[in-house]
Design a protein that fits this description.
- By secondary structure, this protein is an alpha+beta fold.
- The chain has one domain: Sandwich (Immunoglobulin-like), CATH 2.60.40.
- It has 2 helices and 13 strands, in the order αβββββββββββαββ.
- Strands 1, 2, 3, 6, 7, 9, 12 and 13 form an 8-stranded antiparallel beta sheet that branches.
- The longest helix has 25 residues.
- The radius of gyration is 22 Å and the shape is elongated.
Length: about 190
């Protein structure tokens, strides 16, 4: 009888150890992104006029193992038009080109700036309904991961205001209305959005 109890206890302990090993070291989990509290469409603020999509969000892993993000990009879709903003820059005060960011279970909260490719692309934010899709390419994955798709509405008034390099449109999250609210903000030339 004692031998049977010992075998049962050892089997249960082995099962608990195997489960702990799976949950802490082997399980990959998922890469996730929180809902951005602010999104910006407008001028980059650099020396050359270039538009961008800016957002602030937390990237995190649902497992201890974590993820290594090789790159990120944003796809802006309006009606039948789609444009990738594939140049990823991140940081708080000192901005750096994004590459090789480790995302653990605690996560990384930072500013993400997405610029147009330097291939002569000329994209304009026209009035209408947009879907902003945020993608991440991760080490070991064949295809990019869609982290979040966000619906935004750009009014004619806001699109007209964006025609000058000093103006950008901010979309601030409203928790009570469960929607983004747009407003135009003028900023000094050469200063990135905050």
């Amino acid at each position: 009888m004692t031998a049977i109890i010992s075998i049962v206890v050892a089997t249960v302990a082995l099962g608990i150890s195997a489960t702990t090993l799976w949950l802490t070291l082997l399980r990959r989990g998922k890469l996730r992104m929180t809902l951005p509290n602010v999104i910006y469409f407008g001028a980059d603020g650099g020396d050359e006029p270039n538009i961008k999509v800016y957002l602030r969000a937390l990237l995190y892993s649902t497992a201890k193992r974590g993820w290594v993000v090789e790159g990120m990009y944003v796809r802006a879709r309006r009606a039948e038009t789609s444009q990738n903003f594939n140049i990823w820059v991140l940081g708080e005060e000192k901005l750096a080109r994004g590459s090789g960011l480790f995302i653990g279970e605690v996560g990384v909260a930072t500013n993400h700036h997405f610029l147009l490719p330097a291939d002569g692309t000329d994209f304009k934010f026209l009035p209408g309904s947009y879907v902003i899709e945020v993608y991440a390419t991760c080490v070991g994955d064949a295809a990019p991961k869609l982290l979040r798709a966000i619906r935004l509405a750009l009014s004619s008034e806001h699109a007209t205001a964006m025609r000058t390099i000093e103006n950008g449109v901010y979309f601030d999250w409203g928790p009570d209305s469960n929607a983004y609210h747009a407003h135009v903000r003028r900023r000094p030339v050469g200063k990135p959005p905050e």
